[in-house]
């Protein structure tokens, strides 16, 4: 269940719609509110940088995300704490339908068990190794 929670968080945190969102921080806040602890919501309140955002916004792009588990072994699960990681592939789809692959992102989640199930307590984002966003913006 922890892998699924991390994946769902990553999907929500890295997806976006430049016609609605003011920036990538909007998606991070939504993801933290839905899948995170109250502390994570506070931590990510202003978080969300994406050097492609302005170019994507100029084209009215949506950012679509898919995830796959990271292949390394996370630390062992404890009764109330666990770790999981996913690689999030991102594709920008412009308002005219053009698509562009964006740099994939590795998402590492620290999760805690709560009365509501597993919640993301902390998260780290980094560029996934061996990926890139070659090509022009959509």
Key traits:
138 residues, alpha+beta, Nuclear Transport Factor 2, Chain: A, five-stranded antiparallel β-sheet, 4 helices, 36% strand, disordered C terminus
What would you note in describing this structure?
The protein contains four helices and five strands. Helix 1 (2-14) runs antiparallel to helix 2. It is globular. The longest helix has 13 residues, at 2-14. It starts with a helix and ends in an 11-residue tail after the last strand. With 138 residues, it is an alpha+beta fold. The model is unreliable at 132-138 (pLDDT under 50). It has one domain: VirB8 protein (Nuclear Transport Factor 2, Chain: A, Roll), CATH 3.10.450.230.
Q: In the CATH hierarchy, what is the superfamily?
A: VirB8 protein
Using the coordinates above, name the CATH class: Alpha Beta
Low-confidence blocks of residues:
132-138
Distance between the termini: 35 Å
CATH topology: Nuclear Transport Factor 2, Chain: A
CATH architectural category = Roll
Determine the number of helices (DSSP H or I, runs of at least 4 residues): 4
Structural class determined from secondary elements: alpha+beta
The H/E string reads HEHHHEEEE
Number of domains: 1
What profile does the largest beta sheet have? 5 strands, antiparallel
Average residue pLDDT: 88
| Rg (CA only) | 15 Å
């Amino acid at each position: 269940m922890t892998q699924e929670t991390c994946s769902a968080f990553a999907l929500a945190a890295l997806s976006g719609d430049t016609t609605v969102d003011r920036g990538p921080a909007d998606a991070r806040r939504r993801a933290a509110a839905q899948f995170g602890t109250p502390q994570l919501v506070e931590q990510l309140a202003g978080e969300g940088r994406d050097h492609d955002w302005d170019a994507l916004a100029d084209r009215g792009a949506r950012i679509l995300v898919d995830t796959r588990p990271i292949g390394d072994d996370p630390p062992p699960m404890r009764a109330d704490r666990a770790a999981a990681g996913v690689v999030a592939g991102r594709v920008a789809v412009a308002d005219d339908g053009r698509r562009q692959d964006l740099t994939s992102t590795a998402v590492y989640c620290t999760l805690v068990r709560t009365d509501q199930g597993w919640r993301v307590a902390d998260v780290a984002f980094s560029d996934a190794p061996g990926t890139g966003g070659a090509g022009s913006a959509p």
